[in-house]
């Protein structure tokens, strides 16, 4: 038999208040509606459940048994409501973020500082995340927001309906040179190089198989040469340190530039390589409102960063 928890709760209220009218008021129903529900329950259980008298109503032994279970239902409902309020309060302050290294270094900290000023009680966590894992972490619900880089010429790949990509930044690639490189002397800061001009140089490159390396190899091939790679690394920071040590030249994203001593950088005129930086979130952020707040702050930081690049296109 399929038990109607509403009937159990009604019997518990009748027992508590001793009146159909009072139970109806508690449930915001009419007395007639409550009378109909009692009659329906008695037909279902095929036994008398409520005895009506001049002083109100009392339960039969069968009605009292069901009312005991009704009290359990009421307690569970009240506990569920309390637990939900605790959960919603926690979610309203929670922000679980993941970002690849350059974004974690240059985009996330100023946005987090601004968030702390607005919401000092925010429960924030940040994990280092390679871009390829971002979508999976958001889909699985382990992160609320993931900052990822897309190296393809077009927009982000097609996302599941419940995931949204928010564009943050157009991140151009630049050439990092030792500051005593002939091209550094021949081209003033702010000028641009062609990739073909570096065909004879040794390269410090991202390890083979990474999308950044694929971009370099593809672009060099289109310019008619294969980069002579002497050092490989997974980090733009390491690549710049090696360039500063005179180990070669490197292709680095503008966001990842560190200005390490011994290096300079020049814009890349041909081909104009870049990557796009996006934030991934669930499409419904109703339960995690800090996601939208933080997303707005990230956009502010990205605009400020781009404005700085426009003002200072190159430096030594």
Describe the overall structure.
The structure is a single chain. Helices cover 45% and strands 24% of the residues. The chain is rod-shaped. It is built from eleven helices and twelve strands. The protein has helices spanning 5-17, 20-26, 31-45, 61-93, 101-106, 108-118, 131-139, 182-186, 211-222, 236-244, 290-311, and strands at residues 50-53, 56-59, 94-99, 123-128, 145-150, 163-178, 192-194, 202-206, 228-233, 250-253, 263-270, 274-282. It is an alpha/beta fold. The strands form three sheets. Strands 3, 4, 5, 6, 7, 10, 11 and 12 form an eight-stranded mixed sheet that branches. It has a two-stranded antiparallel ribbon with strand order 1-2. A two-stranded parallel sheet has the order 8-9.
Write the layout of secondary structure elements.
Blueprint: H1 5-17, H2 20-26, H3 31-45, E1 50-53, E2 56-59, H4 61-93, E3 94-99, H5 101-106, H6 108-118, E4 123-128, H7 131-139, E5 145-150, E6 163-178, H8 182-186, E7 192-194, E8 202-206, H9 211-222, E9 228-233, H10 236-244, E10 250-253, E11 263-270, E12 274-282, H11 290-311
Structure at a glance:
The protein has 316 residues and is α/β, with parallel strands linked by helices. The chain contains eleven helices and twelve strands. 45% of the residues lie in helices and 24% in strands.
Overall radius of gyration: 33 Å
Distance between the termini: 81 Å
Shape label: rod-shaped
Helix content: 40-55%
Largest sheet report:
8 strands, mixed
- Structural classification: alpha/beta
Jot down its keywords.
single chain, 316 residues, alpha/beta, eight-stranded mixed β-sheet, two-stranded antiparallel sheet, 11 helices, 12 strands, 45% helix, rod-shaped
């Amino acid at each position: 038999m399929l038990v109607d928890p509403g009937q159990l709760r009604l019997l518990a209220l009748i027992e508590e208040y001793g009146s159909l009218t009072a139970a109806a008021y508690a449930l915001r129903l009419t007395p007639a509606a409550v009378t109909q529900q009692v009659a329906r329950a008695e037909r279902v259980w095929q036994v008398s459940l409520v005895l009506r008298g001049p002083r109100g109503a009392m339960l039969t032994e069968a009605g009292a048994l069901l009312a005991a279970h009704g009290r359990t239902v009421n307690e569970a409902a009240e506990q569920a409501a309390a637990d939900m309020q605790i959960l919603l309060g926690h979610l309203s302050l929670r922000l679980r973020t993941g970002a690849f290294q350059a974004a974690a270094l240059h985009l996330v900290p100023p946005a987090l500082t601004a968030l702390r000023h607005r919401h000092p009680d925010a429960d924030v966590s940040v994990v280092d995340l390679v871009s390829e894992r971002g979508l999976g972490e958001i889909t699985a619900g382990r992160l609320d927001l993931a900052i990822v880089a897309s190296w393809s010429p077009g927009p982000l790949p097609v996302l599941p309906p419940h995931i949204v990509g928010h564009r943050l930044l157009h991140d151009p690639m630049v050439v990092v040179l030792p500051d005593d490189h002939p091209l550094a002397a021949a081209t003033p800061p702010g000028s641009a190089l062609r990739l073909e001009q570096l065909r004879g140089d040794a390269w410090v490159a991202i390890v083979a198989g990474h999308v950044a390396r694929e971009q370099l190899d593809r672009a060099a091939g289109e310019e008619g040469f294969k980069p002579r790679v002497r050092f490989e690394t997974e980090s733009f920071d390491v690549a710049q340190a090696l360039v500063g040590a005179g180990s070669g030249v490197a292709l680095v994203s503008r966001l990842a530039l560190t200005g390490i001593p011994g290096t300079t950088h020049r814009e890349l005129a041909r081909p104009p390589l870049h990557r796009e930086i996006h934030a991934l979130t669930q499409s419904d952020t109703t339960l995690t409102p800090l996601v939208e707040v933080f997303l707005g702050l990230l956009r502010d930081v990205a605009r400020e960063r781009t404005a700085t690049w426009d003002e200072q296109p190159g430096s030594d």
